[in-house]
């Protein structure tokens, strides 16, 4: 079964959600993964649709006219002094748009606190039929597979999942075979991109690459095929920010090259999705 593809917002973050849907449709994606939770990062646009009724209506029109669906929304970060209920408006919009998942990551070193808050986010999302998929990030507090697995086992929520990002997995020096021992129901989707094989030792350079200069599948030094063979997911969300290429090519062409490279790579390596129904969690 061929993979289905979602266009992650960070790939073309300058596109508001309606435009994201149109760009994704023209390029041949099945889904979009919009950033509906504003994080307040420098230069980050605010696409919190729960606070912008006009943009929400435009997004609905774009989805209806293109047939594109929303796969997941981001990013429900677990930080210090977090009130999980702050994510409720975004969850409500996500459910209204037919999304399946909420992406989350942990940024506080207080892991007991983080586990408690992550569990609460899961409980809030469950009422909307949404999974909460934990992504570990090399610059975050939970920054490798072992740390993410520890949180998920302690949380023990039926709608909690594990989201593997090719870049982060490679930077964490994790081993693909270690994924085989994990519950299959944890896996709902993965982030696809490539990057330079050499891992930066400088934190600022690590951040720059992960936010500004990831590469098309097969262009870098990550053994994506080795990872995907151990990640039983039906959907690949392409998160591939490359600011210089977007400036040179435009958002639509960059998004198109992302999915074309992904399809060529998976075909060349004989990769396919598992026979899994793409349904929301009951």
UniProtKB/TrEMBL annotation:
GO terms for molecular function: isomerase activity. The keyword Isomerase applies. Keywords: Isomerase. Residues 23-231 form the Xylose isomerase-like TIM barrel domain. InterPro entries: IolE/XylAMocC-like, Xyl_isomerase-like_sf, Xyl_isomerase-like_TIM-brl. This is Sugar phosphate isomerase/epimerase. It comes from Propionivibrio dicarboxylicus. The keyword Plastid does not apply.
